[in-house]
Each structure stands twice: as structure tokens, then as C-alpha cells.
């Protein structure tokens, strides 16, 4: 009998102290909402940077294969398909050099964002230059999202539209 009374008293004590009040739950939900509001833009920005890194890596691969092609053919390739490079075109389109952008001394390519605003990515341009047996490679980044950029005709000149040089 004594044990039964102890168990009943213990159960009453537990039932009174279990659970959260509505105010406590609201405070926790508000704190989680504030943390999400702070961290979500940073998370989206990091996704954009990862996509931009993928574009820069693809342009680096194009530059390396253009150098190899130039070494073998004495001129740069006027078509990406001649380079036998495969890459994803999920966030960027990679252009063939336009007329006047390819010859024995230089070649230009662009990585243009397919959905720059929603993907939060910038445009890029690649220039590979050959001078006196040496190669120089220049990558220009658009100053802002969805801003066009191009590499100069000479390695030492600045990028178009105040683009950022990423040598």
C-alpha cells in the first residue's frame, strides 16, 4: 500500500513538471526563424560561389587544351569541339571564339550565365595568349551579376566593363 501511494505521488509530480508552455515554444520558434533569416542568404551566396568555381575550372580546362592544341597545330582552335573537352552546361554556356577572337597569337572564350539572377552567378571570359614561345592565361570576372565581360586583345590590357582580372 505504501509503495502504491509513493508511485501515485511520483506520477502526479511528473505530470505537473512535464511539457513546455506556449510562450516557451513561441520563443524557440522565433529564435529559429531569426537564425534561418540570417543564414539563408549566406547559404545561397555560397551556392553561387560554388557554381562560379565550376565555371572557372571549366575555363581552366579549356585554356590548357587550347595551349596543347596551339602547340600541335600552330594556331588556336576556333571551335570548342575540336578540343575534345567535355563539360556540363547546367549553369553556364561556353562560347566558341567569335571572328577576330582567334588567331595564332590569341583565343578568347566566354562563360555566360544561363540564369544569372536566380543562380546568383557572374559572367566570365577567358583569354589565352601566345607570345615568343610562352603562354599567358587571363580570366576576367564580371563586376556584377548579369554584367557582360570580355578579355582584352593584349594580355596586359584591362578587362572590359571594369571586369576583375583573375590571373
Automatic annotation (TrEMBL):
GO process terms (BP): protein secretion by the type II secretion system
Keyword set includes Transmembrane helix: yes
UniProt KW keywords: Membrane, Methylation, Transmembrane, Transmembrane helix
Record-linked PROSITE patterns: PROKAR_NTER_METHYL
InterPro entries: Bac_GSPG_pilin, N_methyl_site, Pilin-like, Pilin_GH
Transmembrane segments: 21-44
Pfam families reported for this sequence: N_methyl, Pilin_GH
Topological type in the membrane: Single-pass membrane protein
Record-linked SUPFAM superfamilies: Pili subunits
Localization (cell): Membrane
GO CC aspect terms: membrane; type II protein secretion system complex
Official protein name in the record: Prepilin-type N-terminal cleavage/methylation domain-containing protein
Amino acid at each position: 500500500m505504501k509503495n502504491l501511494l509513493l508511485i501515485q505521488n511520483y506520477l502526479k509530480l511528473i505530470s505537473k513538471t512535464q511539457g513546455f508552455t506556449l510562450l516557451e515554444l513561441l520563443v524557440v520558434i522565433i529564435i529559429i526563424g531569426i537564425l534561418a533569416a540570417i543564414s539563408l542568404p549566406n547559404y545561397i551566396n555560397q551556392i553561387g560561389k560554388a557554381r562560379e568555381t565550376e565555371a572557372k575550372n571549366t575555363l581552366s580546362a579549356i585554356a590548357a587544351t587550347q595551349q596543347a592544341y596551339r602547340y600541335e597545330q600552330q594556331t588556336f582552335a576556333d571551335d570548342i569541339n575540336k578540343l575534345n573537352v567535355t563539360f556540363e552546361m547546367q549553369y553556364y554556356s561556353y562560347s566558341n571564339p567569335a571572328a577576330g577572337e582567334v588567331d595564332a597569337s590569341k583565343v578568347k572564350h566566354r562563360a555566360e550565365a544561363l540564369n544569372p539572377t536566380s543562380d546568383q552567378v557572374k559572367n566570365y571570359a577567358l583569354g589565352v595568349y601566345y607570345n615568343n614561345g610562352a603562354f599567358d592565361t587571363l580570366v576576367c570576372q564580371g563586376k556584377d551579376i548579369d554584367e557582360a565581360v570580355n578579355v582584352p586583345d593584349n594580355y596586359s590590357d584591362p578587362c572590359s566593363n571594369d571586369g576583375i582580372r583573375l590571373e
